[in-house]
């Protein structure tokens, strides 16, 4: 009797902690965009402590068939193309905004772009920003509310390599 009672309480505690640990993710920002074909949307991201460096996550869609949509995006001057679908688990993509090198899968700031639906030439996207440590400030630039410059030009500039200049320093002479 005593052993079965102990076993019951242990199982009860395991179930309670299991439900507590499997909580749904909490998103600090959420926004829904409704876009026409080739209409650009943008999310302005400022890292706290580096407010003078504004980065934009820009995206737009170009082609839709019955279930699939082609989405073009750009973040930190790096273009990407996604094929998203209304089918299960193919309707979202993720973009890391600020990596955390100490605990990368838990403490990073990331953006999730979800393809929510399509109706009469309008695609609906939901943007989720996960930032547990509150390291970013986010502003959603919706083209339906305020017209965007096409695309915003205040992305962080990536340094370019000048191939006309030598890329390595010449070795010093070994003669003495």
Question: What's a quick, concise take on this entry?
Answer:
The chain is mainly beta. It is 11% helix and 42% strand.
How does the SSE layout of this entry go?
Layout: H1 2-21, E1 29-35, E2 41-47, E3 54-64, E4 68-75, E5 78-85, E6 92-98, E7 109-119, E8 122-130, E9 136-141
Number of strands: 9
- Shape verdict: extended
- Estimate percent helicity: 10-25%
> What structural category arises from helix and sheet content?
mainly beta
Describe the structure.
With 176 residues, this protein is mainly beta. It contains one helix and nine strands; from the N terminus they run αβββββββββ. Strand 2 and strand 3 (54-64) form a beta hairpin. The longest helix is centred in the N-terminal third of the chain and has 20 residues, at 2-21.
Core attributes:
extended, 4-stranded antiparallel beta sheet, mainly beta, 9 strands, 5-stranded antiparallel beta sheet, 176 residues, single chain
């Amino acid at each position: 009797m005593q052993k079965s009672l102990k076993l019951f309480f242990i199982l009860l505690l395991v179930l309670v902690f299991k439900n507590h640990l499997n909580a749904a993710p909490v998103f600090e920002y959420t926004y829904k965009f409704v876009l026409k074909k080739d209409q650009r949307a943008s999310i302005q991201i400022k890292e706290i402590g580096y407010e003078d460096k504004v980065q934009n996550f820009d995206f737009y869609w170009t082609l839709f068939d019955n279930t699939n949509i082609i989405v073009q995006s750009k973040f930190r001057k790096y273009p990407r193309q996604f094929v998203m679908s209304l089918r299960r688990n193919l309707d979202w993509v993720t973009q890391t905004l600020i990596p955390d090198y100490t605990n990368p899968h838990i403490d990073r700031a990331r953006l999730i772009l979800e393809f929510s639906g399509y109706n009469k030439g309008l695609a609906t996207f939901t943007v989720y920003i996960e930032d547990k440590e509150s390291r970013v400030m986010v502003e959603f630039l919706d083209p339906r509310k305020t017209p965007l410059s096409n695309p915003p030009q205040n992305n962080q500039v990536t340094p370019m390599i000048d191939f006309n200049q030598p890329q390595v320093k010449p070795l010093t002479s070994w003669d003495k």
